[in-house]
């Protein structure tokens, strides 16, 4: 059954450029907590700010898609791609300029701090208010009440007006309410970023549960790990338009590969700030037939070109490999050391052997420095290139031809299984 149908959706904003102001993103809003919102409402554009120019922005344009019941949909895209605008339209906070949205079911959304919360009312009263908005009876809300309070961890503050809550408490309660009041469609924006890591994990678990119950979850995030673990489908927005829509790993891989590729055109952009002052990498390449792919089980070889402004001795290379969610899979510091002379480029080959990295997409990071794992001082550090694929491989005793991402990034190739004891039948 189709629960969300979006047709020719477009949203146009007209903005006036003034000196000293700019449009605030959701993240800005969150950073300033609920108080910031109130202040901005009380102080709309002050009269002495002169509007210089009017500009039209299409935050969304010609957006079409259909979501079936029980789908867990991730919305990804760069800053300003239109993700929050899409969620605001779906939750009827904003009206579209063109097109239409058809929703089939009760919607609960968690978009901005305090959406649906009344600041003067207590946590308890807001839970009932939100339940009522969602069309639940008092009895139904009562049944869910304790679960909501326990999940949000706000027992002690239940009778305090929510305007006194910290932004973390606000979000915890808002999430608990949205997820527990049995919406048929749950819309969640990045707001989870406000909570701590443990709470984020709890929220992801809860969203998973909601989806398992056959409800539809719509989730905007910049965290590819979270999108990857929760969503079975991903929509990629680019400049207000859908540029990809499909199976999670396929869309995420394409998106990350492109953004890393774009960045790695210039090594400078991947350099950690403050590094590379007197010695630096000037080129980093994967040595393989096509420069992009390595067969499973084959060594990974890099060509590193270094430049130095003064002579250095006893240097070593540090190198790590990351998966596409940014998790570091492993690191090495070379035992071999080298020296480099002033203004004389040095070209090195780094070879990592016996690496049983699972088929998939990865990227590397490198450092030049002194010392190793027991104490390291780095002089240059670049993370994000090269991006490469480990290609699958099939043989009789290996099962890496159809490797599943949830099996992890390392294939344990060398293992033994032996029978220690066999029970004698009674
Ligand atoms: N209320 C508004 N007034 C004017 N312009 C807006 C408004 N809301 C959004 N925009 C503009 O619309 C475009 C899309 O913004 P939106 O917040 O939907 O992007 P996003 O993908 O959610 O970004 P982010 O990842 O930074 O949250 C941006 O260019 C933004 O500046």
TrEMBL record:
GO molecular function annotation: ABC-type transporter activity; ATP binding; ATP hydrolysis activity
Domain ABC transporter: 41-264
UniProt-listed InterPro entries: AAA+_ATPase (IPR003593), ABC_transporter-like_ATP-bd (IPR003439), ABC_transpr_TagH-like (IPR015860), Bact_Polysacc_Export_ATP-bd (IPR050683), P-loop_NTPase (IPR027417), Wzt_C (IPR029439)
GO CC term, one of those recorded: membrane
Annotated SUPFAM superfamilies: P-loop containing nucleoside triphosphate hydrolases (SSF52540)
Pfam families the UniProt entry points to: ABC_tran (PF00005), Wzt_C (PF14524)
Domain of life assignment: Bacteria
Keywords: ATP-binding, Nucleotide-binding, Transport
Keyword Membrane among UniProt keywords: no
Segments forming a coiled coil: none
Keyword Nucleotide-binding part of the UniProt annotation: yes
Family of this protein: Belongs to the ABC transporter superfamily.
UniProt name for this protein: ABC transporter, ATP-binding protein
Organism of origin: Candidatus Moduliflexus flocculans
């Amino acid at each position: 059954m189709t629960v969300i149908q979006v047709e020719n959706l477009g949203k146009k904003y007209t903005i006036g450029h003034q000196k000293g102001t700019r449009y605030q993103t959701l993240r800005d809003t969150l950073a300033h907590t609920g108080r910031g919102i109130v202040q901005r409402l009380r102080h709309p554009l002050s009269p002495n700010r002169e509007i210089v120019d009017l500009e039209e922005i299409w935050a969304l344009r010609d957006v079409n898609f259909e979501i079936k019941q029980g789908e867990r949909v991730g919305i990804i895209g760069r800053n300003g791609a239109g993700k929050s605008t899409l969620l605001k339209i779906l939750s009827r906070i904003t009206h579209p300029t063109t097109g239409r949205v058809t929703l089939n079911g009760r919607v609960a959304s968690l978009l901005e701090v305090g959406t649906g919360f009344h600041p003067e009312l207590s946590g308890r009263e807001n839970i009932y208010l939100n339940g009522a908005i969602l069309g639940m009876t008092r009895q139904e809300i009562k049944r869910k009440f304790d679960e909501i309070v326990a999940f949000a961890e706000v027992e002690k503050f239940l009778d305090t007006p929510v305007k006194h809550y910290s932004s973390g408490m606000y979000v915890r309660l808002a999430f608990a309410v949205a997820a527990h009041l049995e919406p048929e469609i749950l819309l969640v924006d990045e707001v989870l970023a406000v909570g701590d890591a443990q709470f984020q994990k709890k929220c992801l678990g809860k969203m998973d549960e909601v989806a398992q119950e056959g409800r539809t979850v719509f989730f905007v995030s910049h965290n590819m790990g979270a999108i990857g673990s929760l969503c079975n489908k991903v929509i990629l927005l680019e400049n207000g338009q859908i540029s990809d829509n499909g199976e999670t790993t396929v869309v995420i891989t394409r998106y990350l590969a492109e953004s890393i590729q774009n960045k790695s055109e210039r090594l400078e952009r991947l350099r950690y700030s403050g590094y590379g002052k007197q010695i630096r990498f000037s080129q980093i390449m994967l040595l393989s037939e096509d420069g992009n792919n390595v067969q499973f089980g084959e060594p990974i070889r890099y060509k590193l070109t270094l430049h130095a402004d003064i002579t250095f001795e006893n240097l070593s290379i540090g190198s790590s490999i990351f998966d596409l969610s940014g998790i570091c899979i492993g690191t090495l510091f070379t035992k071999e050391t080298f020296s480099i002379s002033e203004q004389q480029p040095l070209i090195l080959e780094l070879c990592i052997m016996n690496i049983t990295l699972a088929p998939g997409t990865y990227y590397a990071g490198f450092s030049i420095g002194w010392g190793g794992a027991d104490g390291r001082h780095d002089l240059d550090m670049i993370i994000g290139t090269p991006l490469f694929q480990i290609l699958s491989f099939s043989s009789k005793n290996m099962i890496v031809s159809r490797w599943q991402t949830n099996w992890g990034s390392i294939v344990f190739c060398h293992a033994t299984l032996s029978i220690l004891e066999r029970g004698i039948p009674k």
